[in-house]
Design goal:
This protein is an all-alpha fold and about 110 residues long. It has helices at about 30-40, 45-65, 105-110.
Length: about 110
Amino acid sequence: MADSNPTRRSTPTPPAVGRPVSVRVLDEDMRDDLAVLMRAHGTAAEPLRLAVRLLARAYRRAWCYREVPDGTAPHIIAIRYALPDGTPEQMPNPAHTAYPHVRDVSTADAE
């Protein structure tokens, strides 16, 4: 069956550097999430740039380490942040997370 949109590209191409990107706010949850990010960044554009950068880095690593097939979206289950002094946040207790089956594997456990 032919594509109903003859101008659609077979391979998505990002816009040229310097060109604006438009993102539709789909629902109140997305609006609320954006409002949270804007508290730290001031504008809507900066947290969107940061989100693209962080997600792209996670995808690149998953593909580079061949943990998921190239071009397949990995399932992101956690994000860690650094405290204001630069030290990493404490690892959460798996019993108190949304993913109790996920745990940090130390080098001793891996041997």
